[in-house]
Amino acid sequence: MSETLPKELVIATRNPGKLIEVREILLSLPVTLRSLLDFPESTEVEETGATFADNASIKARAYALQTGAWTLSDDSGLEVDALGGAPGVYSARYAGESATDEERVELLLSKLARTGDSLRRARFICAVSLADPAGRILNVSEGTCEGRIAHSPRGRQGFGYDPVFIPEGFEQTFGELSSEVKQIISHRARALSGTSAFLLKLFGSRG
Ligand code: ITT
Q1: Which of 63, 91, 187 has the most ligand 1 atoms within 8 A of CB, as the residue to mutate?
Q2: 89 Cα to the center of ligand 1, angstroms
Q3: Domain architecture of the chain: domains with CATH
């Protein structure tokens, strides 16, 4: 394990929606939060893993080595039961590499056009991986948010598939619910609570 405690933590994502959510959740940690915007020379890392945890660790390790800093990476996506778990780890590339969030949502809804309410069960999954500056993975935490897919997009909050995801216990989509609600029940919030607990223990044991 690295000799020194992290003073800075790089949130390694190129997704602005994720960055906002991760930043807000980690704000109270005693570290300076950075993003890849502070490292404009960093190059994109290919996600070749079969699972969210594999991809989160591939990105955390690679960006830690590129930036020389403690690095946290999020890999996340949507699993839809009626589609056999798709789009899963391919959530970002579902409608092709350069597609927009709207195009991905449209493709998803078209695949579910004949699927009734009872079969629209889905979940968001997030894995967050933490690497030290030497690229060693020190912690991987996962979180899940169960729900179902709406019949059409609703609301402008959040990002990605949020306008068509209705979390369990609600009738509104994440696009309609306030960001405060999402920041409590989301897959990302749940994964990051594990990461935060790990970091606080690290600070406590060596601070
Ligand atoms: P980075 O790899 O740079 O972090 P990315 O967008 O490529 O950014 P992923 O590979 O983890 O990230 O893909 C995540 C996909 O799942 C992407 O299409 C997101 O829009 C979607 N997604 C993840 N979390 C989401 C959330 O909280 N709400 C809506 N969509 C989400």
Answers
A1: 91
A2: 9
A3: 8-206 (3.90.950.10)
